[in-house]
Amino acid sequence: MHRRSLVFVLFIFLICGSSSALFAQTDTTLQLIMIGNGAGPYYAPVGQTSQLKIEILNLGPSDVFLVRGEAYLDPDLSGNWLLTHSEDLGNFHLAKLESAIWTFELPMPSHVQAQNITNGVPQVELLAKIMYSTSDAKQQSAEGQFLLSVPGAALHTDYSVYLIILGFVLVAVVVIIVRNVRSRSMRKAQS
Questions:
Q1: Is 92 exposed, middle or buried (0-12, 13-18, 19+ CB in 10 A)?
Q2: φ, ψ for residue 10 (rounded to 5)?
Q3: Ramachandran angles phi, psi of 115, nearest 5°
Q4: pLDDT tens digits, residue range 5-33?
């Protein structure tokens, strides 16, 4: 009898555990995709306002309501993202697997530094953030980072690479000088 009740309790526990796993809903997920010339590049010249488009796709299990869209840049490559554009999205409704296009004007600051160059044009990153609410009124956000080609940006040089190369050159020069001094002193000692 004791054994049957233990088996019965384990059976109920397994059913409850599996049903919660089967019927549990995952978090809502938005995917952000920049729309442009094929796969890019997306141009945003320094000191000008450029129109950009981002597709917002609802991949989650439930409907969402888009609340706000924000765009951030790190114009001086200091790691400090600055809000450059913020816009109310009017609680736009998105059902599962539906998408919306967020078109916004991005004002590029007049002084922007870029770390890398592709096809002769400096590039910086744009951080797009979409705040949304779920049907149960939970506030969440989705982010996407996109490379922007930024004509007119100042080039940021990473001096750490040059310092490492300079360090190797200095060590090599010191080793050569020490070898030459030792070989001269050995020759003098032999003669």
A1: middle
A2: -65, -40
A3: -95, -30
A4: 544 544 554 554 444 333 434 445 899 99
Output the CA torsion sign for 93, 67, 79, 110: positive
Q: What is the DSSP string of 71-107?
A: EEE-TTSSS--EEEEEEEEEEEEE-TT-EEEEEEEEE
Q: Extract the tokens encoding 137.
A: 């009124």
> What pLDDT is stored for residue 3 in this prediction?
54
The CA distances from residue 147 to 8, 29, 47, 139, in Å, are 58, 22, 17, 27
Structure tokens at 61: 């299990």
Q: DSSP 3-state assignment of 133?
A: strand
